Amino acid sequence: MNWFALFLFLPETQYYRNYITGTQQTSGDTKEPVTSDTTADVTSIPKKTFLQELQPWSKINRKTSCIHLFFRPAPLIVYPAVMFGFLVFSITLAWVVSVLNVQASIFQGPHYHMKPGINSLINIPAIVGIAFGSYVGGALTDVIAAKMAKRNEGIFEPEFRLLSLIFPFFIVPSGLLMYCLAIRTHSA
C-alpha cells in the first residue's frame, strides 16, 4: 500500500541538465571555452505532465560514475537545514517513544484503571495528528512554497518552506506539555 501511495504522490525528481558550453573566438584560430556554463532557457523546457512525473525511470547520465553518485550527498551532512531536520526528527522520535513506553503504566495504574483495550484508544488522536502533520509537512509545504515563489517572480527559495513550521512550533510543545502535566498531576 505504501509503495502504491509513493508511486502516485511522489514524482520522479531527477532532472537531467543539458549544459551548453559556449566558446569564445580569440585572436588566431584557437577557441577558448567560456568560464561559465549556461543552461538552456528555462522557458523553453516544457513542463512534465502528471503521467510523465509518475514514470519510475528517467534518462541516465552516462558521464557520471557510480562512485561519484554514491558520495555526492556526503557534504549535505554539514548543511544547517539537514542538521535542523535531524534534531527535529530525533527529538520528536524521542518524545514518541517515551509517550508510548509510559502510557500503559500511567493509564492502567491506580488513578485511571483503564483496561488495555481502552488504553489503546488513546492512540487514535495520535493517528489523526500524524495524518494532519503529514499533510502540513508535505503537500501544504509545497503549496506554500509554490505561492511564495509566484510572489517572488517565479524564483523559488528554500526559506519559503519555513513558513509551514510556524504552526507545529506552537502545537507540538503545547501538546507535550499538556501530556506531561496530566501525567504529573495524576501520578503524584
- Name the helicity range: 40-55%
Mean pLDDT over all positions = 78
The radius of gyration over CA amounts to: 25 Å
Count of alpha/pi helices: 8
**Overall spatial form:** elongated
Order of helices and strands: HEEEEHHHHHHH
Largest sheet: 2 strands, antiparallel
Distance between the termini: 44 Å
Number of DSSP strands?
4
Helix/strand/pairing class, anyone? mainly alpha
Low-pLDDT regions: 23-40
- Largest beta sheet: strand ordering: 1-4
Strand residue content = 5-15%
Any overview of this molecule?
With 188 residues, the protein is mainly alpha-helical. It has a domain at 77-187. 54% of the residues lie in helices and 5% in strands. The protein is built from eight helices and four strands. The longest helix has 28 residues, at 80-107. The model is unreliable at 23-40 (pLDDT under 50).
